[in-house]
Design a protein that fits this description.
Pfam families: GH43_C2, Glyco_hydro_43. The protein has 545 residues and is mostly beta strands. It has one helix spanning 323-339, and strands at 3-6, 18-22, 25-29, 35-36, 38-44, 51-57, 73-82, 85-93, 100-106, 117-118, 128-134, 140-147, 157-165, 170-179, 190-196, 205-211, 219-225, 232-234, 241-242, 252-262, 268-278, 281-297, 300-303, 313-316, 349-352, 364-366, 375-377, 384-386, 400-405, 410-419, 426-432, 437-444, 447-454, 457-465, 471-478, 481-488, 497-503, 519-525, 534-544. The chain is globular and about 70 Å long. The structure holds (Z)-L-Arabinonhydroximo-1,4-lactone.
Length: 545
């Protein structure tokens, strides 16, 4: 019995993975930044197939993301299971509402999740990346990271630990600074996790942390302490996982931010973030989650033993090989599309017909706007109604935008959309990296325009007349090349008209300090008119693996 996990196991921007196991099931949580719903939870029983089960932040009034700039918001969370409940700790960074460290719990990872409880000092004073250890002696420990001030060198950080009271949901006792990174001069020691391990794993408490910044120099290191407050001594083999030494030609880079889990069968695994590269820069998918096998030698974890780097295929020896599922995967979108199924398989087809009572679980919106009906079901059967809430996608505002993460470098994105035609309104498809960088295929005043927006500049890449009524829009993506087409949706098999082509390297997260990958979705902007709307009949992203 053996099955192959295809990396990235969580494709599309889903960085900073944290993972825990409860019985036979593994649960992973990943970062979501300014998007809502936030902090997706995925479940797997074999480490090969991962299904979305819900989001930790699934009510718009749980947290105020309304003023969170792109790549701010919900950073690196940790998920643990203790005392019959799932615990997630996280920081909300930036924005105009409350920010800092918080804890959320749920009996069922599918939800409902509690409202967040803000934990005073939970961000360690403007820090990030909280984690929890529920120790075997009944005590609990919270750790995080923050910039050292003053640091012994620029961008030096401190990993700090305090005791956590799981009843009062607050930090107690003294703070202990336990780690600055494995290497002299290391920047951004971050993403810390404390794990109590058995004698077979060397015993004591393991501190897992990354360093080097989340781009090309990212790396994972480990240290051991007798207790959660240290002192910690680094593994002489540090860093234990990185691609920093592989050079610009490496197909996979930015490897780091890992969490460890045992599989209950004697095996150990890590989930880590990594980026697929194209032409030497980050692919549009940004930082994704990869599975890494782990062995133990001399009391230390060895990541990807014998290889030392991430692999696209990872063998899970005890997982059942499901031939039908694997055939489905390699046939990718085609089969699912032909069968007309609402595909939810990661990396293949994402499709929403807006027929059900709820929006597709993977459909994410930009920021929160509680009480504002910006993407609603029910106004027209089988459609979602977008009501513009911003003048343009360049604003740091909640938008009438709903999209899927772009999970593969090759994809075909289509939507059928009809707008009310309010003056100034644009409605259509967008590939969104941030407010500063996006590509729009939008209908405005009877014209379809393909516009690349980069740092305030609008580059028109083509126009075509739009038929009256409902239109179908298409963006065909091949790496950094995008072709845009339009046709009327009022007649079956109408001919397509090419609108234009755009090079979208500016949407890569490389070199712009971005933590996110690209989302592909529908939007409506450009008017405050209360009666303006755009109805979306279908949105689909067919990924070509
Ligand atoms: C996250 C930090 C990191 O908080 O990037 O790669 C930051 N690691 O741990 C945002 O994802």
């Amino acid at each position: 019995m053996t099955a192959i996990a295809h990396n990235p196991v969580l494709p599309g921007f889903r960085p900073d993975p944290s993972v825990c196991r409860v019985g036979d099931a593994f649960y992973a949580v990943t970062s979501s930044f300014e998007y809502f719903p936030g902090l997706p939870v995925h479940r797997s029983t074999d480490l090969v197939h991962w299904e979305p089960v819900g989001h930790v932040i699934h009510r718009e009034d749980q947290l105020d993301l309304s003023g969170v700039a792109s790549s701010g918001g919900l950073f690196a969370a940790t998920i643990r299971h203790h005392d019959g409940r799932f615990w997630v700790v996280c920081t909300l960074v930036g924005g105009t509402g409350r920010s800092g460290g918080f804890v959320v719990t749920a009996a069922d990872p599918a939800g409902p999740w509690s409202d967040p409880t803000w934990v005073d000092g939970g961000d360690g004073r403007d820090g990030i990346d909280p984690s929890l250890l529920f120790a075997r002696d009944g005590r609990a420990w919270w750790c995080g990271t923050r910039l050292a001030s003053p640091g012994a060198w620029p961008e030096q950080t401190q990993v700090w630990v305090r005791e956590f009271d799981p009843v009062g949901l607050r930090l107690v006792g003294d703070e202990h600074v336990v780690w600055h990174g494995a290497l002299e001069g290391a920047v951004w020691a971050e993403g810390p996790h404390l794990l109590e391990v058995d004698e077979a794993q060397g015993g004591g408490v393991l501190l897992l942390a990354s360093e080097g910044g989340t781009e090309r120099h990212h790396a994972v290191s480990v240290a051991r302490g007798a207790s959660p407050i240290g002192p910690f001594a680094g593994n002489p083999g540090n860093p234990v996982l990185t691609h920093r030494h592989l050079g610009r030609g490496a197909p996979v880079a930015n490897v780091g931010h890992a969490d460890l889990v045992d599989d209950g069968r004697g095996g150990w695994w890590a989930l880590a973030l990594a980026t697929r590269c194209l032409d030497g820069i980050d692919s549009l998918q940004g930082r994704e989650t990869w599975l890494v096998p782990v062995a133990w030698e001399d009391g230390w974890p060895v990541f990807a033993p014998g290889e030392g780097r991430l692999s696209r295929e990872v063998e899970v020896p005890w997982a059942e090989d499901d031939e039908a599922e694997d055939a489905g995967r390699s046939a990718a979108a085609g089969t699912a599309a032909a069968a007309g199924t609402a595909g939810t398989r990661l990396g293949s087809l994402l499709e929403e017909h807006f027929d059900g009572p709820e929006l597709h679980p993977d459909l994410i919106r930009v920021r929160t706007a509680p009480g504002v009906d910006r993407i609603g079901l029910g106004a027209r059967p089988g459609h979602a109604r977008l009501r513009p809430t911003s003048q343009s996608l360049a604003e740091v505002a909640p938008h009438a935008f709903a999209g899927f993460r772009l999970e593969q470098p090759r994809a075909r994105v289509t939507a059928v959309i009809e707008a009310s035609g309010a003056p100034g309104m644009t409605a259509g498809l967008a590939l969104r990296q941030s407010e500063a960088r996006h590509l729009r295929l939008g209908v405005r005043d009877g014209v379809v325009e393909l516009v690349l927006h980069v740092d305030g500049d609008e580059h028109v890449r083509g126009t075509a007349p739009a038929a009256d009524g409902s239109v179908e829009l298409e963006l065909a993506i091949d790496g950094f090349a995008v072709a845009a087409r339009v046709r009327t949706a009022q007649q079956a098999d109408a001919d397509w008209t090419e609108v234009g082509r755009a090079g979208v390297r500016p949407l890569s997260s490389s070199g712009i300090g971005s933590f996110v990958g690209v989302t592909a979705g529908v939007f409506a902007t450009g008017t405050n008119a209360a009666d303006a709307w755009a109805d979306v009949d279908v949105l689909r992203v067919e990924h070509v693996a």
